Structures are given as structure tokens and as C-alpha cells.
Amino acid sequence: xxxxxxxxxxxxxxxxxxxxxxxxxxxxxxxxxxxxxxxxxxxxxxxxxxxxxxxxxxxxxxxxxxxxxxxxxxxxxxxxxxxxxxxxxxxxxxxxxxxxxxxxxxxxxxxxxxxxxxxxxxxxxxxxxxxxxxxxxxxxxxxxxxxxxxxxxxxxxxxxxxxxxxxxxxxxxxxxxxxxxxxxxxxxxxxxxxxxxxxxxxxxxxxxxxxxxxxxxxxxxxxxxxxxxxxxxxxxxxxxxxxxxxxxxxxxxxxxxxxxxxxxxxxxxxxxxxxxxxxxxxxxxxxxxxxxxxxxxxxxxxxxxxxxxxxxxxxxxxxxxxxxxxxxxxxxxxx
Length: 335
Description:
The chain is an alpha/beta fold.
């Protein structure tokens, strides 16, 4: 898959320091009392597509979704060639009405949740005109898809005129206009904060960004929570502020999904530690889960499955990765 990334490899493979990743000390997931109105997901690139897939599949559970440099639900139709030639470089060819019918048919068969749940969702969509990997018109197609269900006032559009393909941050990463690993961009733009603010219920204002506490970042064994067919990494991470422990805490949960070439094999823990989510979580009673995908045959860059890698039902509730991420959240949640 992802031959589109070949043009960056000459600058990527030489940077062995970024690719190195030692296994952290793994801990068991604690049980946390969760605020069900604040369960949301976001992702960048392949993670952006997966965030939408996860949200649409479980729209009764996830109350909002944010896509950064991603695109529309079921864009690839299980075809890795289409994912590149249409979804990434020619998204103007996408027929949104056709995608909507696919979603409605799946909902009618119970393969995904009732699409009427989306009416109360909050959506954030980031794209950049400088993105040469996934053309920004793909974000327009995603907005058109969500607009069939979600009120206009609940859809936030975000952009950065200088950003290349990747996840913009306030002060970490490559030059904002640079293409390549770590796919984290120093754009003086706190996109994590903007996404999280957009996804809050009733447009509730967040407390100011804080300082992340390294002791609140836990690593866990993903293999205990997901099936082997999910093709996910050995471990994942979760940021749990100290104030989220205890029976009366009621914290929100946000799932943050990396993109291609952003798992530990390529960037170590940079996305987990530097994307900016943890600083907002610390001051806003928010838990952030960082699931990790794995590279392997048919997926050399560790992308999330938005093209049918794990089987034809990859965008439904039964999809191995969607089911795996959902189970991680379940296992973290106190009943």
C-alpha cells in the first residue's frame, strides 16, 4: 500500500534516531469513571480516516470526531489503489451521495450504529492547501458527508495556510511546510487544543492548556485487549490526569490516532508525547488514549486500516481495528 510515501523515503530512512523505539514499562489499564457525553476521537492522515470510521461505526458511543488531513468515510471501498489514486490525489472524483448510500445500507443492516445518532455529534475537520499528500478537497467531501446528518453549527472547519501534510503543533516538530517524518509540524498552531475545544459538548469552553505530567502517561500491552487480526502494535499509551482517579471523577475520554509512519517504529513516542493533547488533558479532566497500529505485510508504514487491510468489513463495528480500539476503551471504563 502507500506507495505515495516513496518520494519521502530518501529523507526518512537516514534518520534512524527517530525510528528507534524501546519498549516502555507496561502497566495494566486502570478502571476510570467516564463522562459518557465526552467520549470523542481524532486522528491524522490514515488516523483521520480511522477516526471517522470509528465514529460512524459507533456513533451511539462516540459523541464527536475530528479529522486532520484525512477524508470521507469508506472512501477507498476496500481498494488500496483507489485509496491513493482517488482519495488522496483526486478526491474531486468522490461521489458523496454514493458514500451516503453505503453508510445508510450498513446502518439498516446493523453493521454500524443508527446514523440518526450523528445528529448530536460534534465534528472538526482540518486541512491545508499546502498538503500535497492528501488534497484538501477531500476534507470538503468529508464535510459534505457529515452535513447530511450533523447541523452546520456543529461542524468546525480548521486550516493552516503554511502546513504540509501532518499534525500541526504549537512548538514541536519539523518546519511547518516540511513533508516527511515525524509528520508533526511546528506551525505555532495548537491544533490539538482546537480539536478538543470543538468536540466539547454544548460548546463548553476548556480550561487553559496546562503542563503535561510525565507520571500520568502510562503504557499498556495492547495484545491483552485486541485480537491478532487487528494488526496493531505490541503496546499503546494512555494519559490519565491524577484528578481522574476515584469514583466521583467522571472524566472524558479522547482517542488520538497517529498517521502513517507515525507509530513507534518510525517516530518513537513523539506523537504520544508532543502532539499537544496531554497538556489539554491535564487541565480538563480528560483521558487521552493513544492506540498504536503496526507495520507489516501489505502495510509497511504502519497505517491504520482505511483501505481493507484487515478484511472487507474494515469500516464496520466488526472490523478488527475498530473492535480493538472500542475494547481498549471498554477495558478502561469502570461500570
